[in-house]
Amino acid sequence: MESAFLRAHGVSKNFSGHVAAERLSFEVRRGEVFALLGPNGAGKTTTVRMLIGIIQPDEGHIDIPGEGPARGRLPPDRTGYLPEDRGLYQEIPILRSLVYFGRLRGLDGRDASSRACEWLERMGLLDRKNDRLDALSKGNQQRVQFIAAVLHRPALAILDEPFSGLDPLSQEFFLDLVRDLRNAGTTVLLSSHQMDLVERIADRVLLLNHGREILSGSIGELHGRLDTRPRLRVTLERAPDAELLRADPDVEDIAGDGPDLRVTLRAGAQTPPFLARVVSRVPITAIGTDAPRLHDVFVRAVRDDDARAAGRMA
Amino acid sequence: MSYARDVCIVAQWEFGRFFKWRDQFVSLTLFLLVSVVWAGAALVAGASGRTVTIALAGIEVPAPAGGRLQFVPAAPDDRTGTDALRRGDVQGVLSRRADGAFELLVTKDPRYRMELMVLLEEVVRRERLQASGVSSQALQRILAPVAFDVRFTNPVRERQGRAEKIAAGFCIGVMLIAVFISLANLLTGITGEKQLRVTESVVSAISPQAWIDGKVFGITATALAAVANLIVGMAIVALTAQFASGFTWPAASLRPGVVLALAVYTVLGLLLWNSFFAAVAATVSDVYTSSRSSLLFLPLVPVVLSIAVLRDPDALVARILALFPLTSAPALPMRLVLSDPGLVEVSCSIALLAGAVWVMRRMAGRIFELGILLYGKEPTLPEMMRWAIERRVR
User: Fold this and answer.
1) Distance CA A231, CA A243 (A)
2) Which of A127, B50, B164, B241 is 20–30 Å from B60 (CA)?
3) Does A56 sit within 8 Å of B1, measured CB to CB?
4) Cβ–Cβ gap A83/B373 under 8 Å
């Protein structure tokens, strides 16, 4: 069986001269969680809208291997979509809304109703199925919106910024939901600007900036790009002689004021000898380490791309 | 999933969203209540109507046949009448001054003034006839209107003509009411969906054309059902009026073909306007600040233009208005009942109107496809026209 669920071939989109997506090519593989990452305005939502068929690319095309070009839209009965701009009918009972969206995605009314009740029970909202949506809290409204996107058990779930606006507990809840979808065999494409959440759930990522691809690969490959130099957070008894510390052969960089320092050691440097040298000059009251994070890869890649773009402009 | 299935699902949804059974039931109950109160009031007023007694101070006025007035003679002096008035024996004292003018002495505003005036005018008319020497029979002959009868070769047509004119006017009225009900639902519904950001969820599942078609069918059905409920309510009131006033409806009959044509024009005209307004509503972000509000009165234009048909239903302009799709919905029904347009003209007119509905829904679908996802600045009319004409604009 073809491993790719869908492929984008050089898709581009311009809005009144503004480039929202530029020659993007990527594939989403069956059963994986694929993340579109990027800062605000990077072109994630435009890319998602092109994939779902709400807008058409100016150039390039999207196809479903084995089925040919998507002809404007992905098959709605096999695709679920959670838009960035969340919205359901506020004045209408929750169950009725869910049944409507289920029917639009190909379910019959009875099936849609029973599946909606199952999901509502799982979300702890079954007793509120006849309430108007606007009677629910924002977090619960997001849960109902999520149900509307996956009620018909799509083969591909496209989730645009699923974690935005959620409190930490709800973020964990939604991470579990995405994991459950993947475990049930659903391919998930999500967009987000929150790398720290994405790295916990995604198999592969595509990093966008100004509509362009600036980085892509599996989470493992991205870990290979991490800055592995030791980074320490050191609190001294008193402010040290910074020049003396900078002169240390293992020190790459020192930041911070007074007794609180952030020290980056050179690649390959050992931490204990460095600390021994520091203690011989000033007593240390606290030590910590900064673990390398994909978030930093994300930030650095975007900054590098911005700098290159600024250079081209100059 | 098929287009037809999507349209049906959306139409059902829109009907369920806007047609509130409870509200319709309440409105029907209100009609019934008003009718019952009206009939009851009429019965009570008829049974307990008070008689107004007026003292005639030295003058003679013939006793009225029926009505609430009754006259009693009184001495021509002021005191007798005034005393009777104070005691409440009479409600007014009528006298006549030297210049011939009547004078009514009362203690409060006479609500029977008009009734009394009619009687006094008759008194004065008789006096003047006697003075001029013309008999009342001679005067009636002079003032009698010209005798003029219209006789139809087919007497049934005479009864039909009257009934069909009422039916045509009724259908045009129904269409206008339904257009404005639909307009309100389309504007609030579609702008609401834009504001609630429901649009992306829906257009990712079905085509914008299926969505707008379903909306137009659903909201058209909602408006027709609401108007049908209104008609039932009005029928209840009419039957009550018949019961309360003893009014009898004249015998009337309608040609089945005319009834069918009127129904077809009402539905097609409504679909045409609803498609147009669905497209307009898709470009409106906020119904309260939109510059599109001037378009809301457009459905009145064809009705006003169709008044030309009333003046001369066989004039060239009337024939053109009856064929032109934007005016045919009110114009052809008028021609149908005032003249005899013939099967060919009616068929052509219906075909043109149906074609216009199809073109309008396609154009509306293209405007809707772009407008529904557009927030903030509203597109200009030339932009909307470009969207409507271009085949693929997304």
Assistant:
1) 18
2) B50
3) no
4) no
Task: Look over chain A and give the mean of its residue pLDDT values, rounded to a whole number.
Answer: 87
DSSP label of A248: S
For the question of an ipTM over 0.85, the answer is: no
- B155 pLDDT band (50/70/90 cuts)? low
Section A279-305 average pLDDT: 82
Minimum distance, in Å, between the CA of residue A71 and any CA atom of chain B: 12
Chain A residues touching B193 at Cβ < 8 A: 87, 89
CA B322 to chain centre: 22
H-type alpha helices, chain B: 3-18, 21-48, 78-87, 113-132, 136-143, 155-195, 199-203, 208-245, 256-282, 300-305, 307-311, 316-323, 325-338, 342-371, 381-389
Query: What's the mean pLDDT in B122-135?
Result: 82
Nearest-Cα residue of chain A relative to residue B369: A54
Q: Check A100 against B13: CB less than 8 A apart.
A: yes
For chain A, domain boundaries: 4-223, 231-289
What is the model's pLDDT at position A233?
Answer: 87
Contacts of A100 in chain B (CB under 8 A): 9, 13
Contact B204 A101 (CB under 8 A): no
Give B202's contacts in chain A (Cβ within 8 Å): 104
CB distance A19 to A8 below 8 Å: no
Asked if residue B221 has pLDDT above 90, the reply is yes
pLDDT of residue B392 exceeding 60? no
Q: Across the interface, do B6 and A104 touch by the CB < 8 Å criterion?
A: yes
Closest listed residue to residue A274, CA positions, set A229, A238, A237: A229
A83 vs B contacts (CB less than 8 Å):
197, 200-201, 204
pLDDT tens-place string over residues A168-203: 888 899 999 999 999 999 999 999 988 888 888 999
Match 């592969």 to its residue by tokens. Answer: A204
Supply A236's token pair. 């001294």
Q: Yes or no: say if A74 and A105 are a contact pair by the CB < 8 Å rule.
A: no
Would you say residue A294 has pLDDT above 80? no
Most confident of A21-30, A248-257, B290-299, B363-372: A21-30
List the domains of chain B with CATH numbers.
Answer: 3-36+158-389 (no CATH), 51-143 (3.40.190)
Q: What is the pLDDT of residues B93-102, one digit of tens each?
A: 998 888 889 9
Residue A306 backbone phi and psi in degrees, to 5 = -60, -40
Q: What is the CATH number of domain A4-223?
A: 3.40.50.300
**Model-wide pTM > 0.80:** no
